[in-house]
Structure formats: C-alpha cells, structure tokens
Amino acid sequence: MHTGDVFSCQIGSPGGFVDFTTIGDAVNTASRVQGLCKYYGVQALITGKTFNFAGKPEGYKRLDVIAVKGKEQPLEIYSKEPYAQKWLEFEAARKLYADGEFIKAKQEFERLGSGLKMWAWRCEQLEKNPPAKGEWKGVWK
C-alpha cells in the first residue's frame, strides 16, 4: 500500500468499451511495492508514507529502505511483524547490511534461515560488486 494522489475515471467511448481505472504516481508506486511481497516473504507491505499517515500502527516494523524502479527517492517499507520470532536478530543483520558489512551480514542472514535468502543474495552481490567508497547509503535499487 502507498498513499498519494490518484486520478480515477472511466475511459472509453460512448457506445463502446468503457472501463473504470485509477492512474497516477501513487498507483504505480503501490504496484511496485506490492510486487516485492514475494521477495520478502510477507503478505503485505506498506510504505513509510502510509505508515505515518495511518498513525504508525502498532505491530508494523520497518523492513527495508528501497528505491523502486523509476524512482530515485528511497522508500521505507513496513510489514506487520515480519520474521516475528527472529526480529531482533534480523534487525542486527540488517544493520550490518546497512553499514556495508556485507560478508558478516550475509552470514547472519544465512544463519537466520530460509525466509532471508534474498538478503543473503543481496549481500553476495554487493560483496562481488561493492559500491564506491561513500556511495552506499543502505538503499537497494
């Protein structure tokens, strides 16, 4: 889910095919974020904008900071109790990742188990092709 302005309308011609649609930057962002659920192993994700707009709902945790396709501005994404049993350990591994300690982070993500394979893969990619010194901001694009 993402929060923002949208344009909702019917499109088509009189007597022809008419369809109801919603368009706009917020719709595109929501679609891109929704497509990430399978990678994080969660049923739903909300952006930081929605999280804040909803009054920072209890039980949601910041999962990542990403830049979706077509966007330069990073987005925080939240999920309801992701990796609930291992949350503190996940947070420690994610901090290693954000700090650019990719080898240590990869080891921790692998130790934590199957739901975190994507994180270990990212660390491997970043270790193989490290960002230039001072370039890494902890944002996956």
Can you walk me through this structure?
By secondary structure, the chain is an alpha+beta fold. It contains six helices and five strands, in the order E-E-H-H-E-H-E-E-H-H-H. It has helices at residues 25-34, 37-40, 48-53, 87-98, 102-112, 117-128; strands spanning 7-12, 18-23, 46-47, 60-66, 75-80. A three-stranded antiparallel beta sheet has the order 3-5-4. The protein has a two-stranded antiparallel ribbon with strand order 1-2. Helix 4 (87-98) packs antiparallel against helix 5 (102-112) and helix 5 (102-112) runs antiparallel to helix 6 (117-128). The longest helix has 12 residues, at 87-98. It starts with 6 loop residues before the first strand and ends in a 13-residue tail after the last helix. The mean pLDDT is 87.
In short:
The protein is of the alpha+beta class and 141 residues long.
Topology:
Elements: E1 7-12, E2 18-23, H1 25-34, H2 37-40, E3 46-47, H3 48-53, E4 60-66, E5 75-80, H4 87-98, H5 102-112, H6 117-128
Antiparallel strand pairs: 1-2, 3-5, 4-5
Helix pairs in contact: 4-5, 5-6
Mean model confidence by pLDDT: 87
Spatially, the strands of the biggest sheet line up as: 3-5-4
Radius of gyration: 18 Å
Overall spatial form: elongated
Number of helices: 6
What characteristics describe this protein?
19% strand; alpha+beta; two-stranded antiparallel ribbon; 6 helices; 141 residues; 3-stranded antiparallel β-sheet; 39% helix
